[in-house]
Amino acid sequence: MAEPILSTRDVVKVYAGFTALAGVSLDVAEGTIHAIIGP
């Protein structure tokens, strides 16, 4: 597999003491389409 054109590792998002995301990782390969949906 080729190297991703976008890569994130261990993303964490906290809102006023509430952990909404913890340890999320994402790799996006060239030529693919992705969507991230949230509030």
Shape: elongated
Query: How does the helix and strand content classify structurally?
Result: mainly beta
Percentage of residues in helical conformation: under 10%
Q: Give the terminus-to-terminus CA distance.
A: 32 Å
For the largest sheet, list the strands in their spatial order.
1-2
Q: What is the residue-averaged pLDDT?
A: 92
Radius of gyration based on Cα positions? 13 Å
- Runs with pLDDT <50, length 5+? none
| N-to-C SSE string, H for helix and E for strand | EE
Proportion of beta-strand residues:
over 45%
Biggest β-sheet description: 2 strands, antiparallel
Please count the helical segments. Answer: 0
Number of DSSP-assigned strands: 2
Written account of the structure:
With 39 residues, the protein is mostly beta strands. 0% of the residues lie in helices and 54% in strands. It contains no helices and 2 strands. The protein has strands at 6-15, 18-28. The protein has a two-stranded antiparallel ribbon with strand order 1-2. Strand 1 (6-15) and strand 2 (18-28) form a beta hairpin. It is elongated.
